[in-house]
Amino acid sequence: MCGEHYSKASISQMLNYLREYVSQWLTCSLEAYYPIIFIDCVHMKGGVKKQELSMWC
User: CB of 8 within 8 A of CB of 56?
Assistant: First the structure.
C-alpha cells in the first residue's frame, strides 16, 4: 500500500469496514491464539514547482 494514493472518502470507507470487525473482536471471548495486525500510516505534503503533492504511505 505504500506509495498508493487514497481519497479521504476511501480511507473512511476502509475504516468503517474494519470498525465492524474490530468491535466484534472486542466483544468475543479470549482464546489461546490471536493473529496480530499492525497498521501504520504517514501523510506527507510537499510542493514541487508550485504543484502540491499529497502522499499516503
Answer: no
Amino acid identity at 19: R
Cα-trace Rg, the chain: 17
52 phi and psi, to 5 degrees? -85, 130
Residue closest to 18 by CA, chosen among 39, 42, 41, 43: 39
Q: What is the pLDDT of residues 12-55, one digit of tens each?
A: 888 888 898 888 888 888 767 777 888 887 777 666 666 665 65
Task: Show me where the domains of the chain are located.
Answer: 8-56
pTM of the model: 0.39
- Rounded-to-integer distance, Cα 45 and Cα 54, Å: 5
